[in-house]
Each structure stands twice: as C-alpha cells, then as structure tokens.
C-alpha cells in the first residue's frame, strides 16, 4: 500500500494543486477531493530528472493520458500543465487515473513515512495497511479511533486525497496483482486471498486501478520476464496451494535496496522462540505467524537474497525476499504477508534513513559498514510485550526459554495451529492465573510474575500496543504498570508499536556504544537523529555487539 506524503528535501511541501479529473470518479468509495499540498516545482524537477528517490513518495498523474506514474518513469515527461502530483496511489485512482503499464507504480514497496507520525490520519493509514477495513469495515475502524465515519473520511481525504475505502481497495488491488504475477492460483482464489468480497468486485476494482481485466494480466511466474526472478517450485515443495485445508504460496516480497539480509536473519536467530521459530542448518528460517484463521508458517530462504554489494545501488532498485507461506486458509494471505513485511521491515527506505543519519560523525561509518540494516518488528505486538517483561534483567538465551514456556503453557485456545508450531500466548489465559501459578509454570520471581499478570490483564482489557495504537496513550498505560520502566516501554514502542523514533536511552549497551554514563546524555546526543532514532539505535547495537564478539574470539 502506497500512501506516503512527498517531501522536498524531507521538508513539508507548500503549494496546493488544482483538482485533477481526467475521468469521472466512481461513487463506490472514491473521491474527487483536492489532493493535499505538494510542492509542484520540487515534484516536477524530480519527475523531469527521473529521480528514483521520490518513487513511492509522490505519484505523477498525467491529465492528457489519464495515467499515473512513478517520478522515475522512463516515458517522455509531459508538459507541466498536464501534470498533477499526488501523495498516494489511492489518491491517483480516486481522481480517475490508472496505473502506468511501463513503470508499474503499483509494484513499488511500501513506505514507513506514516509510521513516523502519531496523529489520527497516520494511525488510520497504519490500521488500513494491516487490513482493518477488511476485518471491521470503515465503521469499525472509525470506532477504534474514537471518531465518526464522516470525520475520519474528511480527515483522510484532506490529508491523503483518498477515503479509507479507496485506500483499502487500492491495497487489495496491488496485492491481487502481485498474486496474479507470482502464483498459479485461479483468479477466483486470488480474489479471495486479496480480501475481495466477490469475483465481480475483484474484476471491477482491477479494471478501475489498472485499466485491464484480471484475466488479461500477465502471469509471469517462473518466466525470465520477472526482474526479481521466480521462486523455485522444485527447491521447496510448498510452492503452491496443495490442499484446501493448508494452502501454500511462494512469493517474493519486494523491498528497496540495499537490504541487509545477514543482519536481520541474525536478529531472528538470536530471538528465536522455541515452538514459534525454527532455524534450519541450510540457512532458512521458519516462523509461526498468528492470523485470523489460526497460525500460519512463513519460511524464508535467506540464501537466495544477494548481499548488498550485489544489489543495484540505484534508488529504484528492488530486492525480492523469497518466502513460502503455509496458511490456515487463503483468506489469511494478506494478514500473513503484512506481518512478514513488518517483521523484516520491508517498507523501510534506506536512502531516506541514511539521509537523516549519515551527517552524524558517530553514525556515518556505521551506515556505510551495514548498508540496508533494518529495524525488525514484532510478529504479534501483545506477544512481544509479554516477552519483553520476561526478558527483563536476564540473558537473551534465558529470555527465549521463558518465552517458549509461555507459548507452550498459554497458547491461544481453539487456534488452528500448524504442525510442529505453537500458537501465540493468550493474554486472557495468563491474566486468569495468580502470581504463584505463573511462578510455578514459568520459573519466575514473584515480582516478575506479578508484572506479567498485570500486563496480561491490561492487554486482555484492551490495551493496544500494535502499529495503529495511540502511542502516547500506550506508553502512559504501560508505564503505569508496576514493574515496567522506561526501557521496557521504549522497547515495546520500537518493536510492537512500530515507532521508528522510539529510543531506549537507558539501555546499557546503547550507552556504552555512545560512551556516556547517563540516559539523559544519550537523549541529548540523539536529538538530531529524529525521527529515526530507532534505526540509529539498531546500528549502534549491531556495531557494539559485533565488536564485543571480535574481542571474545581467540
């Protein structure tokens, strides 16, 4: 889903454009409202220079053709009077434009721009990206955000140029096109997997978005035409749907280059939870992912991801991460894919992060040594919050053991678990136990058991620690629980809330890496790193731990 606001040199744009309307907008959720303010001159310079750094951050609509493109599209650039610029693909479609068949703006990876902000619109975008409209509808999303449908729609149209329903429709359409190109699924199954309510709705939406019927779209799976290459169906038998009960899909999830696969695999290995993760000797990893229909398994073949040095250095370069999803049902495809994208931070923009951090003398060298380092997120926010409490003041190995015990003892009842894997822990079951029972079953101190029980109770009663949460409220409610301090709050904000500016200033390793004794000094040093202090922290952690490992090696 592509919904980022463009920026000139990362500053706010100033000029509001006239409305673009090359075709009448449909009444089924699309809008003809004026898009948000964008700096026309900056956007047109980017498009004229085919600057790939703007891809996914701004979209060019051409009124003379009714097509929208990436700024880097190789086609001849139109005259300025025929150009309109939009902050999202959904806004282009809402204004009546169709995706360019040459530059494929719909095939861009996502963006973390909306993760930087904590306001209502940003929260709504994150929830829609995670499938909230599919799950609870626009009315349910508005209720979650404590606003009326009308107010939510007005705010999003003013800010993004598209309604919540249009954003959700564009998200489904882009997902469906990827499935059409990369799998052998029948079109009816693809419609279901992408979240469409009917085959007719699927066809209408695809024609609206791309100007072509799904049946006429190229099915490039396994062909040389796919620039990312096919996922080998022979090397992994789970390369296609094998039964109605457990469909399997092999995909390549797109992300911007460079992508530091070695570092993120090492992170997954270091934090692997018994019963929830498997690290294979061949280099692949498998992870249990909780989805509405039960527990899905994602297997990642890291050996097929080239190192950053072998990835294109152009800003438009896209890397494909090969994954095989084993799903409880096809309808769980989109939730599983979005969870994996968060886990691997596939929507990060390395160029944007480098631009924000590389001028700091402490970070410039670290960025060069680890190009494409990502900020991995929690697979399930509540599970991670509970696991973070278990990991307080113990080693990483001990924390993994405790988290495995938690999953084994309190797995969600009735969840369709995958063979050999556990479903995630259920906060309600944990909250129903007294502290002594938690001590006996998990091997905790009394104080830790009380904190775990209190947190589980808060989560069971509605404390939201997911990407769409009110971050200020979540931080305050976490901090109010006895036994949860600033370090735990910021770690949960970093991995569960998905806040790229979260910053555990009191972390011992972070302070050692910075060479300071107090958290207040660490806070002062990091002011210029906003809004990406979380990425800076990840780089400092990685560098310190690597240096420590070298010292320990004989």
TrEMBL record:
This is DNA-3-methyladenine glycosylase II. GO terms for biological process: base-excision repair, AP site formation; DNA alkylation repair; methylation. Residues 216-244 are annotated as: Disordered. Pfam families: Ada_Zn_binding, AlkA_N, HhH-GPD, HTH_18. Gene3D superfamilies: DNA Methylphosphotriester Repair Domain (3.40.10.10), DNA-3-methyladenine glycosylase AlkA, N-terminal domain (3.30.310.20), Helix-hairpin-Helix base-excision DNA repair enzymes (C-terminal) (1.10.1670.10), Homeodomain-like (1.10.10.60), Hypothetical protein, domain 2 (1.10.340.30). The lineage of its organism: Bacteria, Bacillati, Actinomycetota, Actinomycetes, Micrococcales. It comes from the Bacteria. Its EC number is 3.2.2.21. It comes from Leucobacter triazinivorans. Its cofactor is Zn(2+). It is an enzyme of class 3 (hydrolase). Signal peptide: none annotated. One of its GO terms (molecular function) is DNA-7-methylguanine glycosylase activity. Residues 122-220 form the HTH araC/xylS-type domain. Keywords: Activator, DNA damage, DNA repair, Methyltransferase, Transcription, Transcription regulation, Transferase. It catalyses: Hydrolysis of alkylated DNA, releasing 3-methyladenine, 3-methylguanine, 7-methylguanine and 7-methyladenine. GO terms for cellular component: cytoplasm; protein-DNA complex. InterPro entries: Ada-like_dom_sf, Ada_DNA_repair_Zn-bd, AlkA_N, AlkA_N_sf, Alkylbase_DNA_Glycosylase/TA, DNA_glycosylase, HhH-GPD_domain, HhH_base_excis_C.
